[in-house]
Every structure is written in structure tokens, then in C-alpha cells.
## 1
Amino acid sequence: MEKFTTLTGVAAPMPLVNIDTDMIIPKQFLKTIKRSGLGVNLFDEMRYDDDGQEIPDFVLNQPAYRSAQILVAGENFGCGSSREHAPWALLDFGIRCVISTSFADIFYSNCFKNGILPIVLPQEQVDALMQDATKGENARIAVDLESQTVTGADGAVFAFQVDPFKKHCLLNGLDDIGLSLEKVASIDSFEAQAAQARPWV
Amino acid sequence: MPKTLYDKIWDAHVVHQDTDGTCLLYIDRHLVHEVTSPQAFEGLRMAGRKVRAPDKTIAVPDHNVPTTPDREHGIENPESRIQVEALDRNARESGVHYYPVNDVRQGIVHIVGPEQGWTLPGMTVVCGDSHTATHGAFGALAHGIGTSEVEHVLATQTLIQQKSKNMKVEITGSLPPGVTAKDITLSVIGATGTAGGTGYVIEYCGQAIRELSMEGRMTVCNMAIEGGARAGLIAPDEKTFQYVMGRPHAPKGAQWDAALAWWKTLYSDDDAQWDKVITLRAEDIAPVVTWGTSPEDVLPITAHVPEPDSFTGGKTGAARRALAYMGLEAGQKLTDIEIDTVFIGSCTNGRIEDLRAAAEVLKGRKIAVKRAMIVPGSGLVRAQAEEEGLAQIFMDAGFEWRLAGCSMCLAMNPDQLAPGERCAATSNRNFEGRQGRGGRTHLMSPAMAAAAAITGRLTDVRDLVGEPA
Ligand code: SF4
């Protein structure tokens, strides 16, 4: 997994609430057995018309946002299915950070497994950043994971919360399977005990 | 200290706890399907790791499989075929329990697990699928997980988790006639919103929940995720034990007695602390349908399509967008909305009881829609429905009688809506494009979907079966 430390870039505004995983990556693209290559189909049904032509109005099709690295979105981003194809598609497009007032649980934890930082901020602060985002390339947003801050285009600094373990893994690009396997002795002894206590499992 | 049911199951599965509260939780059952697992098995292979507990891992293809009888000759769509073949290879190489496409026990993973007795009270159950919450109906802590977590569980049989908050959802009293488990679960989401449960594990309780069958309880827990909660729970009781007893992988003999003794301790203590409590009266719940593109867009069938301006916050824009997508006008009577297609099935409502409820409405009647299909949740549900004569009722009414799978719930196989096609569906999501690009979905119970099939429009099933409205 790629580390996440700091990021300064263009943010794309998506003020819709309840952006679900079917919008982020529709199911016809879940048939892949790979993790890569999903970026072209990110937000496919909003981004392309029935003939596969780009819809010029859609934010990521506008010249200013074609290389956006940050999304600022309405509440409950990523609701719906557990598909990790959603963060894979965001990452493949180049998005490394999503800012919203709230995220769906599974999507939120899937982001951290893929080097994407989801940031939760209060409504007024998301509104301010959404305002910045509408200015396109004229307004860059800076994210610093170590200090847990987002800096808006006009220099306003917003602090955000992040779980210490998730932060540690993201900062260092750690694979958490490796970390859990360091505890294999605990797993072995739990399994032995459980086999006594609940042999039917 | 008094504990909730969630606390009790959690405590019994903590392998290791860090100082910041992050836990390594032991996983008793890992269910696997073809869409969210290939990258996990691949990751395992690349790292030279093995499946730690193949005996606790169950694999079944469901999302991609065709539901037409010709599927025994193979899957035509090359990408779907590759994905199902990948599962086949991964399952066989790793030695997990496996139900291939042509096995009569094949079906939707959340229907197969309980049916085969893999899901038992007090267990931790995970699957790379958000509707894993279904298994909570047994008093099992069941989470949906992403593919990286699937790989983590395959490698370690554990999951890194932080404890959620406890929410109690109590449904008091008894359901009126014509009102079902689906109406309960949709009404709860209507009351809390799709983000209302985020960060919580929900325990459903109260008389109306106790009175539900196991099938109904699975329907309720299935949609905990649509309310934002990763897991829903219902304390096990006699009905649960009766359902589990004698299933192929349920404990037997002395082990059954030991299991039962523990299962009987699995309930929330009277004085347990809740972070949030929601109470609904069963008498107030009506048969409901969704009108928009989020499961929280739910209204009693007797209502009208709402005005977008009647919503606050970001919802006004979302409602306007939803009405445009759904091709509806504010103020329109819900019962005036005409339906093209009816889909009865999915892990929400593809069990035998759901098919019985639909058959009761359809018996001796004919459909008035362009197409209608019943997709049983498993091969065994299908066999039982045939034995009970339900399949004949469906076919006589004009329904297609399909093989088991996810089918038009998410339209990854050929069962899809055309743009603008309007569907009465018993599944769980009405998102834009969920059942096919441009397709329009109204969620409802099997009885309500059957009623819509008969009249060709959204219909109050109570009018059709002559129950008092
Ligand atoms: S039936 Fe639908 S919701 Fe259930 S597992 Fe299949 S696709 Fe998911």
C-alpha cells in the first residue's frame, strides 16, 4: 500500500448526499479479478452517456478537475455495498482523499486499506471546502495526516480526527495482515481455548 | 456489569486488545462469493500465505450466475465465467466448503449459510458482502467486509475491529394483517435515515420481532446495512433453536446440549446500557414502498409522492434528482404508479416463507405486467417451493420460475432492467442503476410485489386480499 503523508491538490466538488457505491463504480465493472484499471469507469453512469461519450457537465470531465486528487462530497459518502472496487476506482483515477460530513462504515475502512484518507469534518467546514473546490485549479486544498489538518485555499486550517492505528498504518503504508500475523501466538491460543469452550464451532 | 447481546458475543471473540481499544476479533465463519474474493486469494498467493481455517470457510457463487435453466451448459458472459471459474479454482485449491453452481444447495450466500446450519447463535460471521447483517437474525455478530479484510480473514481467521456503539430498536405490539418483516425494516430506515445507524450495531427487539419467523427476522437484519449499521442482531430464542436443530452443520448430541446451554445466555441484560434507543409501534406500520433512489425514501402505500421542497438540508436536491430519475411527479398517488416488471427474490426476500406469501396473493390470478420473475434464494428453496405446489401457482400466474442466485437484485447477470423500465422489487436497494442502467426500482414486500404484478401498478395488498385497510 502506498503511504499517505501530505497531499496538496485540486479538489472536485460533489455536493450530492448519499453517493453510493453503485454510483462510484457500477456493478458491470465488478467482474474483474484485478484491483487496477477501474479509474476510467469511476462514476461511470454519471460520467458517460449511453453511447459512452463523456457528459461535459459532470465534474470530473471538466478540464479543471480531470486530475483532481481530492473529493469534497455530501453526507453519507460510500453507502451501499462492501465492494472495495469503490476505493480501487477512486485510487486508480488519482483520488487520494475524500472529505465529507460522514461516511458509510465499510467504505470508510476500505479506504484505509488502499492508501486513501477519508476525512470527516463538520458541515460548515465541509461547506467552506466545497466552496474552495468550486474554484477549480485556482484553489488548492492541503492535507497533512501527521498533524491531522486540512488547509483551505484561503489558509483556514481545520483539524480532523483519525483513529491512531489507522493513521499509523496509512503514514507508513503498512499491510495489516503482516501486523496481525505477528500476533499468531495469541490466535493459536485463542483457537485452542475456543475449541474447548465451543467445540461445535 | 450488565451487558448487551453485542457485548457478550464481542467479549467471547477478542483475541487481542490494544491500548487504544483496537481489537483482533476471532471469526467463526467466513462466507465467500465470487465477486469480492478473487483479489483476496490472489493477494494471499502473492504473499505465500495459506487459508488458515478452510473448515470455517464456505464458498458459493451467486452474484454472477445466470438463473435460466441453460446455465448447466456454462456461463456465456466471459467476464462472469472467469470470475466464477476463479472461485471454483480458489475454493478447490484451498479446501474450503464449496457449493458449485450446479449443486442443488447453491444459492445466495446469505441464504445458504443459515440453511446449511453454518450460521449459529453467538458466532462471529463475516463475508465480503454488506448484507452479511442477515445472519444477525440468529444472534450472531455478522459484519460485511471489504476485499482486503477478506484476505485478512483468510490469512488470520481474525478481523481488526473497533467496537461499535449499541442501538436498541424496539418494535412494540403486533403487526396488523398484510404488514410484514419487510415493512418493519423499511419503516425503521424511513425513521432513522440511511446514515442513522452508522457507527452502531443494532439489536432489534420487542413483541413484533419475537412474533416473526426466522425468515422474517433475517429480512429485518438483512437491511440493517441500509440503515447504516454494519450489523443487526436479534437475541436467539426457541424459534431460533428449532430452526437450527438438525441442519447439516448444526451441532448434534452432547455438543448440541452444550451449545444450547450457552445460546440461552445470549440476550441483553435488563439493565444494559444503550447509546441510542428507537421505538416504533407495530400498529403504526403500514405496507410501505419506496418512491426514490435511497432506501430511506419510504412511504406507506396510501401516501403520495412527496414535494422535494418538503425536505430540509441536502435532501431537497437529492429528492428532486430522485423524482427526475424515477420519472415521478410530486403529489402523484403512489397507487397510480404503473409497473412494467416484478422481481421477487434476493437475500432479503428469497426464502420459502417469502414465496409462500407471494403465492397466497397470486393464487388463481394472472399478471398484468410485461414481465415477472421469481428467483428462489437457493436450490433447496426452489425444490421446496416445487414440492409445495408454489412453483405451479407462479407459472400459472405468468411468472418466470428461475434458478437460484442474486439475479435482478444487482443485475450482474443477464437479468437487468432496460432504461426507464419500472420494477416492483423485493430486494434491498433502489439506487440509480442498481437493477440496470436507467432502471427504476420500488422496494416492497413479496406480498406487495405480487399485488403489483396482478394490477400492473403499485397496490395496497390489503385491498386485494380483502383485509381491513
Ligand atoms: S441478493 Fe442482492 S443484496 Fe443479496 S447478496 Fe445478492 S446482490 Fe447482494
Note: Chain B has a mean pLDDT of 96.
## 2
Amino acid sequence: MDQNPTRVLLIEDRQEDYLLTRRILSRCENQAFDLEWAESWQAGIEAIRRCAHDVCLLDFRIGGGDGLELLKESKEIGCKAPVILLTGISDYRLDLAAMEIGAADFLVKDKLTPELLERAIRYAMVQAEDMEELRRRQDRIAASELRFRSVVQSAADAIILSDDSGQIVFWNKGAETIFGYTEDEVIGAPLETLMPEQYRASQRLEFERLRSMGRAQNVGSPVELMALRKDGSAFPIELSLASWTNGSGTMLTAVIRDVSERKRSEEWRRAKETAEATNLAKSTAIARVSHELRTPLHAVLGFASLLLKNPAGNLTPFEKDLLERIVQNSKDQLELIHSMLDLSKTEPSAHWLDAHSRAG
Amino acid sequence: MRKVAVVDDNSDNRLIIRTILEDQYEILEFSSGMEAIEGFRKNKPDVVILDISLPEMDGTEILRRIREDYQLHDLPVIALTAHAMVGDREKYLAAGFNDYVAKPILDMNVLFSTIQRWENRE
């Protein structure tokens, strides 16, 4: 025998029926009951609102209204306790109507026995508990579904589900943005729709494979390939595939990222790097050529200048004039090389040229 | 006689400097950085004239090794360059050279006065 008495709310406007019910409940051997009596519609509603009962027995003809209406109202209030309707006469249509609204049982008063009522209450409570558990599960599923939806719908990537025949069964906002098709336009369409012609044959093979082996190639690591927008333009994508099997067959999840922008910036970066490398090679070559051209002239200038110093004191004016011409020509040549090859420098006038023209 | 080391891979350049200086200085010629550093350890010069553009070990690298060497770190080192751009002087002094002479050497007095600035440094 259960330690805790079952808390019963009786909504009944006739005292003799209350007393009858109380007598029946008190005769139940296997379960104790705490009975609360609400004598009117209003008292019944207030008692229901308190949610303090395990089960509710409701007279079908309650003063001030119809028992079905009160039942409906109790469901709207969110009363979780099962409601058993009590009626004076057996009426099949009324029974069905009560069941429809959510009555746990439908009992005829003058056929009540302690065993019958106790069993009806017990079953009603277990069923209500089961219903409650089911409802909690549904809530969890709904919450999980909502989470899934909000994650999937807020993703910038296209997230597409297809069945094993390659038909699109799910299409998120990201997919709409990337491909240009709305969900309505694309659900039920073949995945091929999203691919340029040249990929379609291999995709058909892929789905054959998926159907026969239950798994697809390319599952796991992302691959880069081309896709087709609604407007017919092709664009590069990164595709990640996952396949999974549920009761109705193998499904394929495709996560697709539009990589046009990334491709463009990669190309731009490569072009920039090439240009920079070319520039560097050019300036290195210029520096080398400049050095190679100037070194022998430095020697010519140096030696001619040494001779002009006339250390032995035996040069004729004519010989000195020739040496000066060698020096002048070399300087002109140096200046020419300098201005040709050092154009990139911000200060085109060479330090040595300035120094020398001041000195000379 | 004070010793001036000339480090330059071009023999014409070395000959010009030798011709200018040899009446007043003992000239030690080197055509590469490795050869020069080895030579300095055996016979330490008073002043070094160091070409910047050398194959293999370039002038700034040779300077770094001189500055790290406990025997040679205080050597006065004069950079010799054909780059000859405005701002070069500051650049080479900042790199740790004591002084700077631009190629081609047309005015011998520039070379003399530069060496004289450093040869008597104690």
C-alpha cells in the first residue's frame, strides 16, 4: 500500500453525490485518499488553479455550466492532474467528446465501486505521468530543434541536407544567400542543380555509391570545387560532406562555403608578391650592374689622377692635358652610369660628385 | 712607420691606395675578410680601410667580427664604398665604422686627412 494518500479534488454540487464518493473512496483497501470537495464551478476552478491534487473527479452536470466546459478550462489553465468525468447516465457520444478534450476517464456514478474508482484513478495518474514525460521529451526535442535551426539558420555557410537519391530535403538561409534559391524553390530538387554540367555525371556515380555502400566519398575533409548559382554563374566553393543514417535511409549533409572572395584575395596577394619579387630582382640587378660598371672606371680615374700629380715632375703640358681628358671623360661616364642606374634613389646627386665639384 | 691595412677584392683599387699612401705608411693588402682578420691578429695595423662590397664576407660582417674580437675590437675602421649616396656616411657611422671614404678617390687629401684623424688615436 502506497504510503502517501492520493490527493483527490472532487468538483460536485450535490452533497449526496459527494458523500457517496467519499464513502466509496474510504472503502478502497489498497490506497488511501485525501478528498477535497469543491461545491461549485467557481470553487472548482480555484482549486484547480492551486495545482495541489493528483487527480480531479468532475461532475458532468456541475451547477453554473457544463462539465466539459470546465474540463476544457482546466486544460487551458494547464492543470496537469488527470480529470475523470463522473456522469449520471452512460452516453457514448458524451464519452467520446470528453475523451477528445482530454478526460482521463468517463465513469457512471451509480456503477461506481471502490475497486473501479481506485483502478480508474491509478490508471489515470500513470497515464498522466506518461503524458507529462512525453510532453517533457517533446519540449526537449523542440528546444533542441530550435537550437539546431537557429545555429543552422544563422550560419553564413550554406547547410544543405539531401537524401540518398540526391534530393534536397533541407536548405538554410546561408544556402539561399549563396546560391540565390529560396527554400521553396529548391526543396525536392536534385543536388545536381547546384553544380556545373561537368560535375553532374560524377555526382550521380557518387550517389550510386552512397546508396549501395551507405557511405560517400569526400566525407570528412573539405574539398574545393565549382558550384552554380541560380543566375547560372559558376563560383568556387569549399565543400564539407558528412553522411549519416537514420530510420529512413542515408542522408548527406553538405556544408558549403563561398570562397570567391578568398580566391580573389589569394590571387591578388600572389600577383602582388610576384610584382614585389620582380621589383626586388630588378633593383638587385641594377645594383650589381652599377657596381660592375663603375669599378673599372674608378680604377681608370684613380690611376689617371695619380699620374696627374706628376710625382717625377717630368710631364709636358700636352701630356697633362691628355691625362685631364682621361679624367674628365671617366667622370662624365661615371655620372652617366649613375644617373641611368640610380633613378630609383630619392637623392639622385651623388655625395662624391658634390664633394668633388666643390673641391675641383 | 704606421701601418694601414687595405681590404678590397679589386687589385686596382688596392694599388691606387697603396700608391697614394706608401711613402708615408706601411701598407698591408688583403683581398678577403677571412684573410684580413687572420692577418690583423698576426700583425695589427693602426688603421683599416675596408671595402663594403666584398664577395663572400662583406664589409659590415668583417666589421662585426673585428668588434667582437678581443684583440682587434678597438681598431679604427674606415668604410670605403662606391655607393656614394647622400646619407651613406651617417649610415656607415651608425653601423660602427669610425669613418667613411667614397670611391673613386680623386682627391688624395681626403684619404690622408681621414687616416690622420684615426692613426694617432690611443
Note: Residues 346-360 of chain A have pLDDT under 50 and may be disordered.
